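Below: protein 1.
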Amino acid sequence: MQSKPQLLAWLTCDAVHIDPGSGKHTILGIFSNIQARQFPVTHPYMVWFLTLTDCTPGPHHLRISMGLEAMRLAPFLDRDFESQSPLHRINLINEIRNLSFPQPGEYSLLVEVDDEPLLATSLTVSG
């Protein structure tokens, strides 16, 4: 039986630096909410950083859906990635530019790999 991918880390942050010598990732400015003075508001740049494991060798598909209502999420990010081995830890850096929030609230996020839900979380946007 094939196991489903496992999500080891999910972070929203300002940036990720990869050291060219060691390959180590440095996570900068982790946050879980956005404050705005007025709405709609556009956040200029953030990174959704994920670490996955237990992915079978070969191609895979990441989808992140988002919305104000948990039952009515729209696909926001779709990308393919490769796994070399189920033992590998795969770090995916997803740069999000100019993300608009029409109103304050709890924005639901659903992370799926190969149509398999791995995480349901939220991002708070407040005034």
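Below: protein 2.
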Amino acid sequence: MKIVLLKDIAGVGRRNEVKNVSDGYALNMLIPNKLAVVGTPSAIAHAARLKAEQEGERKLQENLLLKNFSSLEGVEIELTEKANEKGHLFASVHTSTIASELKKQKGIDVLPDFLHVEKPIKEIGAHTITVKAHDKTGTFSLVIKAL
């Protein structure tokens, strides 16, 4: 059965993709849980429009980021999180949180997809965040303090 995915599903596909799955999986799992809709011609056309808009937005953000790479150098943002007395955070810091703080504190708009963290951030202190777009790479500093 042809379906259009409404959300990212591990092992199946990403949002707004058209996929062929077994009838049982579609009718018993995906459609009742609102993870997909039946792949009618109108649903497929709508998904293609949404996918094109998302790709256009991503390209625009990437081009803007390439122009503003110089503004990232030397930037330091601070974040306050809950931590225990040993300096371990109760919850790791995600790239979406870093991107929103970067916009709030410095006015630099970066999609979380472009931020790369080598390992999950689970401790207070200074961390280096890498920003990658095409073949350009930039870095900025993230300082996490205990609440």
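The longest helix spans residues 41-67.
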